[in-house]
Design brief:
One of its GO terms (cellular component) is cell envelope. The chain has helices at residues 19-22, 24-36, 51-55, 67-75, and strands at residues 11-15, 41-45, 58-60. By secondary structure, it is an alpha/beta fold. α3 (51-55) links the parallel β2 and β3 (58-60). The mean pLDDT is 94.
Length: 76
């Protein structure tokens, strides 16, 4: 995916990653996109309450090991 895709996204889904810490440049682009488009939704699926989860519109604090069940549900 290109960084420019973030500027056109309606929803960004991050699973099991603290993007704010591990990918700060990407995270800043996400923050900029949210400022430019207040309707952009950020969804974070992570058992930890990370900095990324703190700014999410929806934080799904999954139990460790249950992410596969979430992904299967999303496919149906």
């Amino acid at each position: 995916n290109c960084y420019e895709d973030i500027d056109h996204a309606e929803v960004i889904f991050i699973a099991g990653a603290n993007t704010a810490y591990a990918h700060p440049i990407l995270f800043r682009r996400i923050e900029d996109a949210k400022r430019a488009n207040p309707h952009l939704q950020l969804i974070v699926a992570d058992p930890r309450r990370t900095e990324t989860a703190e700014v999410a519109d929806l934080h799904l604090p999954l139990q460790p090991g249950t992410d596969v069940a979430l992904f299967h549900a999303m496919l149906h």
